[in-house]
Amino acid sequence: MQIGYKLFAEDVAPKELIRRAVEAERAGFDFVEISDHFHPWLPEHQHSSFAWAILSAIAAKTETLRLATGVTCPSIRYHPAIIAQAAATLQIISDGRFTLGVGAGERLSERIVGQGWPEVGDRHRRFREALEIIRLLWSGGTHSYRGDFLTLQDARVYDLPETLPEIVVAAGGPQAAALAAELGDGLFSTDPDASLIEAWTAAGGDGPRYCEVPTAFAPDARAGAEAAHERFRFGPLGWKVLAELPDPTAFDQATQSIRVEDMEEAFACGPDVERHVEVFSEFRDAGFDHLVLMDASTDPDAFMGFFQDELGPRLRQSA
Phi and psi of 264, rounded to 5°? Predict the structure, then answer.
């Protein structure tokens, strides 16, 4: 069991993200995972820095902490050749500590390059081509590729690490789980859905299974729920909605009916270790083995202390 800390780039300034990663290593986290968006989700969010620059700085300032994108879309805003190059470089400078988490993207951030937003079938076919290109470039040598959506012309990634990064593929249903089994090294999800792992395994999937665990450390449960509502109320919308809305204003409007009480039910809110273990266990029991604590706390240093002294040992004991 590996336990990670979510670097929520949409609501945290760049230097603070780096500082929190350093503190996460000191507190005993195994890895950090960073979101890779151009825009934030909600009007309350006032940041959205370039994830690859942040990860490079973290690699230079830490020694054992593993790094992951959670997740990058390598098929619209980025060309997959650029992601193949970036991930290979980061794997080298981090001494083999990087995992490439990938997904098919959201309109929120991908539309900014003016290529529109494909319907879901084309989006997933394009995503498949992107993964094929990354694998091709990581095989060494010069390559060209011509797909229905993406092309590559005489490209080579010159600096390849001795051990390639693992590719962990985000999936929300059985078709995406099959793609993760075919072209990925692991699975990524945000829901404790055991059937997703079953579909992935049935398709030949084997490897790490990542999932994000919602927590909101605070002096009391109500304060934690209020913090979760302010920062993460977009989460209950589900990926069919999350992938389609265009901007923070639309997300604000779509979340008007979500209550603080809804967040208290979904998140591990407050200082009660056993409540945090209860929520964590839902994801562990579903079969996920790389669990990322996505904390809504307004005091990250207090949360780090809570994890180091109480929560981390208790979670590892429960695992």
Answer: -65, -35
